[in-house]
């Protein structure tokens, strides 16, 4: 297969790498216009507008909003409709995701100063969260678990899921995952109209405080636009994997790990970095050998040829520098002493340590979240976690003595900023 | 003064309150066009474009970028130029902000499962952070401390501050605050061009990973537009205070606390809630009495009359319900047992407990950050903190046994999602 080959020895290596990594996430003008119209319509006309868009875009025949709500009994039914093996797999995955998430819970804290002044931070859960789940082919039950379980661990009392069911096509695994995750309400709506319903509320859909979950360009654009009215999670770009390998892993394993990212869609990005030129050749041979067995071979080829790369590094230090520059969503350290190497990684969404730790294990069931920062945003952002469904309030309680002392400092600084009322308010509290 | 009076007994109370709280934060079309042009120009032309915009908008005469960098020696000089009282106040405030921030630092953690599989979370600091500080009249040295100190406590190695100096006008207190906060580099640039320089990097200005700090509509719009390329803090709306008082605090104190928010600008919002009708009248009298002494009386009047309100609640439970609905940036609980009442507050940026705890003390020197979520966004967001300058990477290290067990679950779920390469990648690791 014709995959771009790079070598860190080349003088224009970083320029070529930058070009390979570049991804423009901006929505085009026509998408923005369409979404704007839908948002305004749902804000004004509520349920009625959502029904109309749903009938139009998802080819449904709903006459009342009640038909678009999926009752809990239907979710329970889905649990019966899937195979026992699937149900066990979902339940085991859910238990592991929950167990990991419980380690992330933030607690309130406070401390008292000598003069009796109390300072602290009070942690509370969000009241209502909306979870967007894509319908049709891109419906991933694992995403329901990964988004819903941390919210429930955080203590969110009301979790509302929206999932389009175009042509009334239902994904039993998605409904089953919703049942296992204790989602509170489910509506079979999608697109920008579902985002609008959650952001503004309608007669039937409760207004939420934050909307999470992946979606197409219309959903992503709508989320970006309602940000501020509600919170949103990150806007995800195409999924990526960077495999750093010392050359001692079975090349078939590495080829398949690269495929597992590439099969998501044509824009997904799989990159291999290794200091071992012979190993890189072996992986290329494995790729050519294994590609024929893949049902999604066309997508994998388009992804690897259009956005993939194999990079020959000088040594492991060089490979680590590249990993930190790329700040990948998924980083596989298929090397000896992976835990030690991981300590040198500054930027990555998730770090998969050692030859046994295939990224696919993390996608489904290892425990940590599979919603991760893409497109180099791991430089400044984190995986989805319990902390995304909690927030903090500062606590300040001054004793009479404390207020008197702090009042003097505040008065000086307030006068320096020309804010007399601030100064006076502080001075009232000086003894 | 003619301030809107509301009573929770009124049938249309919530509708009236919503109207009073409404704030449209969207940028208008012409601002977006202007900012778009500046961003594109700086991205293409780097230093040269920034110099041109700075000379034009800030009426400067720079011929090289070197003239726009403020050396550390100049910051140290500012420490000498301010009064000893100001320097002590800044240093005391800085020490308290640092001490509180140190309580917020996140640590890495991991745990090992029975089969040897390791799961965890690795916490790292951001590499480079840009700090926007407004110039001219709105220059607040306290904001330099509040933004810079948490970044340094997080361990950010390179903190780059930009502050416009229109007509070469310099704010000595701002420079002194930069010296005290250990800011690494300072450039005298501002506006959308400064945001662009930090987001894309120029020949002289390093590209940062996140931009924080307040600014005017052009700065806010630019930050919103570069989000994704870099991280940003929240886009702040006008500042607000909600005072909940049981009627037992000196009405002059409460009037001045309301003024201290209102004096920021005409759009600031000060609201008083009390179950005590007589007390509300006393505060109104204090307002009329004290307003005449205020240098910024015009701004205070415009703010209180245009956006302020006094609300009579049925009782304290009712008052708390209103506070949770408003989710105010600043919440003063001027009541008995304020610490107990605070536990019932679900949504607020900062909670000021007790009659002595004037909001102004928190603005400057109590310790907790004064950069807080506005416009009801405390429903889903938090004060600026050390955690905003750290990020997390998930850690997954499967043992051979662990990978084998997880591989089975992943294989089942991957086949259910139609992702064969995921399944095969997991199956390679099954014993």
From TrEMBL, chains A, B:
Single Gene Ontology BP annotation: L-histidine biosynthetic process
GO CC, alphabetical: cytosol
Catalytic activity, as annotated: L-histidinol + 2 NAD(+) + H2O = L-histidine + 2 NADH + 3 H(+)
Details of cofactor binding: Binds 1 zinc ion per subunit.
CDD domains with a match to the protein in the record: Histidinol_dh (cd06572)
Pfam families in the cross-refs: Histidinol_dh
Binding-site residues for NAD(+), renumbered to this chain: 132, 193, 216
SUPFAM superfamilies, alphabetized: ALDH-like
Binding residues for Zn(2+): 261, 264, 363, 422
The EC number(s) this enzyme carries: 1.1.1.23
Catalytic machinery residues: 329-330
Keywords: Amino-acid biosynthesis, Histidine biosynthesis, Metal-binding, NAD, Oxidoreductase, Zinc
Needed co-factor(s): Zn(2+)
Binding site for substrate: 239, 261, 264, 330, 363, 417, 422
Example GO molecular function: zinc ion binding
Pathway the protein takes part in: Amino-acid biosynthesis; L-histidine biosynthesis; L-histidine from 5-phospho-alpha-D-ribose 1-diphosphate: step 9/9
InterPro entries: Ald_DH/histidinol_DH (IPR016161), Histidinol_DH_CS (IPR001692), Histidinol_DH_monofunct (IPR022695), Hstdl_DH (IPR012131)
NCBIfam families named among the record's database cross-references: hisD (TIGR00069)
Physiological role: Catalyzes the sequential NAD-dependent oxidations of L-histidinol to L-histidinaldehyde and then to L-histidine.
Family: Belongs to the histidinol dehydrogenase family.
Name of the protein in its database record: Histidinol dehydrogenase
Source organism: Cocleimonas flava
Lineage: Bacteria, Pseudomonadati, Pseudomonadota, Gammaproteobacteria, Thiotrichales
């Amino acid at each position: 297969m014709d995959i771009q080959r790079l070598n860190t020895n080349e003088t224009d290596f970083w320029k070529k790498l930058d070009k390979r990594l570049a991804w423009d996430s901006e929505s085009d003008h026509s998408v923005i216009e369409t979404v704007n119209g839908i948002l305004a319509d749902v804000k004004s006309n509520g349920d009625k507008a959502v029904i109309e868009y749903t009938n139009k875009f998802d080819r449904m025949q709903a006459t009342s909003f009640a038909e678009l709500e999926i009752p809990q009994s239907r979710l329970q039914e889905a649990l019966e409709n899937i195979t026992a093996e699937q149900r066990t797999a979902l339940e085991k995955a859910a238990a592991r995701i929950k167990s990991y998430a419980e380690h992330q819970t933030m607690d309130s804290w406070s401390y008292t100063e000598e003069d009796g002044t109390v300072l602290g931070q009070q942690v509370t859960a969000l009241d209502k969260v909306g979870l967007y789940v894509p319908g049709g082919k891109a419906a991933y039950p694992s995403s329901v678990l990964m988004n819903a379980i941390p919210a429930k661990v955080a203590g969110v009392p009301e979790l509302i899921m929206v999932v389009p069911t175009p042509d009334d096509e239902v994904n039993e695994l998605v409904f089953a995952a919703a049942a296992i995750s204790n989602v509170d309400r489910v509506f079979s709506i999608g697109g920008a109209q579902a985002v609008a319903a959650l952001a503004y509320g309608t007669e039937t859909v409760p207004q939420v405080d934050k909307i999470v979950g992946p979606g197409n360009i219309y959903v992503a654009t709508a989320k970006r636009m309602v940000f501020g009215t509600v919170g949103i999670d990150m806007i995800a770009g195409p999924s990526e994997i960077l495999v750093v390998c010392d050359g001692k892993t079975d090349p078939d394993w590495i080829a398949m790990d690269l495929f597992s990212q590439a099969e998501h869609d044509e824009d997904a990005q799989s990159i291999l970095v290794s200091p071992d030129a012979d190993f890189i050749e072996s992986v290329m041979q494995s790729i050519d050998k294994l590609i024929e067995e893949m049902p999604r071979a066309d997508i994998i080829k388009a992804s690897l040829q259009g956005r993939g790369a194999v990079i020959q590094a000088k040594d492991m230090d060089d490979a680590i520098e590249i990993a930190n520059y790329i700040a990948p969503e998924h980083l596989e350290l298929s090397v000896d002493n992976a835990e030690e190497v991981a300590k040198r990684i500054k930027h990555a969404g998730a770090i998969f340590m050692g030859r046994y730790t295939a990224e696919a294990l993390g996608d489904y069931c290892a425990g940590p979240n599979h919603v991760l920062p893409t497109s180099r945003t791991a430089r400044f952002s984190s995986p989805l976690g319990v902390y995304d469904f909690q927030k903090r309030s500062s606590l300040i309680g001054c004793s009479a003595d404390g207020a008197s002392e702090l009042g003097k400092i505040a008065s000086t600084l307030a006068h320096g900023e020309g804010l007399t009322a601030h100064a006076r308010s502080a001075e009232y509290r000086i003894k």
